[in-house]
Amino acid sequence: SSPIVEGPLDSEALSGLSEKDRMLVQWRVLDELSYEQISKKLGQSEPALRQALSRALKRLRILIEAKGSLQ
After folding, report:
1. CA separation (Å) from 20 to 17, 26, 52, 70?
2. C-alpha angle 50/63/33, rounded to 5°?
3. CA 65 to chain CA mean position, Å
4. Higher-confidence residue: 64 or 11?
5. If DSSP codes are grouped into helix, strand and coil, which group holds residue 24?
6. What's the predicted TM-score (pTM) here?
7. What residues contact residue 36 under an 8 Å CB cut-off, 6+ apart?
8. Cα distance from N-terminal residue to C-terminal residue, the chain
9. Which secondary-structure segment (H or E) carries 68?
10. Taking the CA of residue 61 as centre, how many other CA atoms within 13 Å lie in the half-sphere pointing to its CB?
11. What band does 65 get if pLDDT is binned at 50, 70 and 90?
């Protein structure tokens, strides 16, 4: 399967996310928790969690790409 985020996670880009988005990315990507584990932690349905994480990862990719274009 393809990686959730290409390349190393950039702490500066992560800092551009909201606290909730950072938490979702941390748990799913770095801590490698399952969607089920995260949804239980948050008391949120899995489909809602998947959507929220998808949006968080999209925002993170935009931040990483924007940073890359500034260098």
Report:
1. 8, 10, 9, 26
2. 35
3. 15
4. 64
5. helix
6. 0.78
7. 46
8. 30
9. helix 46-70
10. 10
11. confident
Q: How far are the Cα atoms of 33, 66, 68 from residue 24, in angstroms, in the given order?
A: 10, 21, 23
The two structure tokens encoding residue 6: 């290409």
Residue 57 is encoded by which pair of tokens?
A: 């990862």
Structure tokens at 10: 């950039």
DSSP 43: T
Asked if residue 24 lies in contact with residue 52, where contact means CB atoms within 8 angstroms, the answer is yes
Q: Which two tokens stand for residue 28?
A: 């799913």
Give the amino acid at 32.
E
Q: Which of 24, 29, 33, 32 is nearest to 9 (CA)?
A: 29
In angstroms, what CA-CA distances link 67 with 8, 49, 71? 13, 27, 7
